[in-house]
Amino acid sequence: MLKVQNLSMSARETLLEDMNTEFESGVVYGIVATNGSGKTTLLRILAGLTKAQSGAVYLEDSSGKIDLVTTRKKIFYYETSDWLDGHLSALDYLKFVNASWADNKADIGAIIGYWGLEEFVKLPIRKYSLGMKQKTILAMYEASNTDYWLMDEPMNGLDDANQKRFIGFMEAARKQGKCIIFSSHQNDILHDISDKVYFITNRKWAETAGGV
Predict the structure, then answer these.
(1) What's the rounded Cα separation, in Å, for the pair 64 and 113?
(2) Cα gap 63→36, rounded to integer Å
(3) 3-class state of residue 204 by DSSP
(4) In whole angstroms, what is the distance from residue 72 CA to residue 85 CA?
(5) Partners of 14 in beta bridges
(6) Positive or negative CA dihedral for 104, 139, 25, 32?
(7) In the sheet where 28-32 sits, what is the strand order?
(8) In Å, what is the CA distance from 118 to each residue of 45, 111, 159?
(9) DSSP state of 89
(10) Could you report how far apart the first and last alpha carbons of the chain are, in Å?
(11) In this structure, are residues 126 and 169 in contact, taking their beta carbons and an 8 Å threshold?
(12) Is-contact 171 202, C-beta < 8 A?
């Protein structure tokens, strides 16, 4: 379980005050907020990339808090295709993620097949369209085989067919017990695939029922 206690965060101004929540295994969480309201900042804090103004974020199991090294192996977050190195290929990234997070336990061939990466998986990423880059990132989540997936606008650049593939991907991951936390401002799709949806408005964290 990923726990958040009394979390406050700020950039140029306060974005969120005194957030308390728990993210459980096998649940898909959607976060809705307008641009600039703190979605990405929150995901960075949950991933341990950004320090909160105050409060605590930690993983806990039946024996208590999980140590930092183990925590880093259980969470995967890849924010944007801008992070991808154009000289490397999708295959390079999938192999690296699989080795670094999953100890080479994920089936790279099956992942490539699911996302239809075969034709370009060995090409340098600088030749990819936005949709191809996004499919590479989503494939990296599966290659990580981690328990917690943090996703920032994961459907960015996906066409209708790949949006449907993404929904199936989320449903399968839920059944596997993944905890998925993703942000979007596309409320209709969020309500279709999320168990719980949270809104960040006026520096507050509020929950509404999901669509499944």
Answers:
(1) 39
(2) 38
(3) strand
(4) 22
(5) 10
(6) positive
(7) 75-77, 148-152, 179-184, 28-32, 196-201, 204-209
(8) 34, 10, 18
(9) B
(10) 21
(11) no
(12) no
At 212 the pLDDT is 44
At 83, which amino acid appears?
Answer: W
Phi, psi of 21 (to 5 degrees): -165, 170
* Tokens linked to 153: 């606008």
Q: Which domains does the chain have, with CATH numbers?
A: 2-209 (3.40.50.300)
**pTM confidence score:** 0.91
pLDDT at 85: 98
What is the pLDDT at residue 188?
A: 65
**Phi, psi at residue 60, to the nearest 5°?**
-140, 140
| Distances, alpha carbon 178 to alpha carbons 141, 153, 200, in Å | 11, 18, 23
Residue 3: other Cβ atoms inside 10 A: 15
Q: Which residues of the chain have pLDDT under 50?
A: 210-212
Q: What is the pLDDT of residue 92?
A: 98
DSSP 4-73: EEEEEEESSSEEEEEEEEEE-TT-EEEEE--TTSSHHHHHHHHHTSS--SEEEEEEEETTEEPPHHHHHH
